[in-house]
Amino acid sequence: MPPADATIPEALHSHPPVVIAPVVHAYAVTIQTVFVWAVPVAVIAFVLALFLKQVPLRDAARASATDIGEGFNAPEPLDPERKLEIAVARLIAKEGRSAIPEIRERSGTMLGIGTGWCVAQVHLRRRHGRPTDMVSIARQVMVPSEVLLPAFREAAAAGYVGGDADSWTMTDAGQREWDRFSGALKDWLSERLEMPLADDRAQIDAALGRLTGRFLDEETTARVRGRVLELATAART
For the chain, what is the mean pLDDT? Predict the structure, then answer.
């Protein structure tokens, strides 16, 4: 038999049984030998695995690896600041909503759910130079301003915000309560991301600032785009 025929099943079986019998026997013996040696290797690997130290994933890694695809993707060439932003955003998106009551209780703030949301809107928009009128805030969250106005009036009555629907401002009391809550939020992020609290509080604060700023930038871009579309439609008509 030509040696090449032994590697092609169709060519091998074109020969008489008496010719191919030694070749089939050789394959069978070889495969059996491979499996016989593979069994003890697998047993040894299993025993060694029992002695490996169990190291749980960090919460940030667990939040980002939501499925096999993300968990085994090739690493992205991102700078440390961008990586921190992604980790913070994913962690907040995954656990933030359920963790907010615990964070608020830990902070000791007097802000409730509604008043805290109003104070956050005013603080973040002023921090990034965005308008704090009722119409702009309502447009961002896509809720009629009439629905949001009672909550802002409640926050104003409690002394947390000042001004009126044309321009809300932060009061000293509102800023103090917000600082308490935001401090507890940064502590929570530091714990989940396993970052040294003293060294990386500023990094987390900067990451949160960039994220909120980018979100408000997207809002502004969408509003400008919508206005351009309105003008274009008006010009056509």
Answer: 76
| Residue that is written with structure tokens 């009126």 in the block | 164
Task: Express as a percent the part of the chain with pLDDT over 70.
Answer: 71
Specify whether 36 is located in the same domain as 148: no
- Whether the pLDDT of residue 229 is over 50: the answer is no
Element (H, E) at 168: strand 167-170
Clarify whether residues 83 and 200 are in a common domain: yes
d(CA 236, CA 231): 9
Least confidently predicted of 78-92, 110-124, 173-187? 78-92
Alpha helices in 169-196 (DSSP H): 172-193
pLDDT in tens, 46-70: 888 888 777 655 544 554 554 444 4
Residue matched to tokens 């994913």: 90
Q: How far apart are CA 190 and CA 192, in angstroms?
A: 6
**Residue 75 pLDDT exceeds 80:** no
8 in the same domain as 117? no
In which domain, by residue range, is 162 found?
64-236
pTM of the model: 0.54
Q: How far is CA 235 from the centre of its chain?
A: 42
Backbone angles phi, psi at 111, to 5 degrees: -70, 135
The CATH number assigned to the domain holding 220 equals 1.10.10
Neighbours of 106 (CB within 10 A): 16
Q: Are 94 and 208 found together in one domain? A: yes
Q: Is 45 left (phi over 0), alpha (psi -120 to 50) or beta?
A: alpha
Judge whether residue 157 has pLDDT over 90: yes
Joined tokens for residue 103: 């964070």
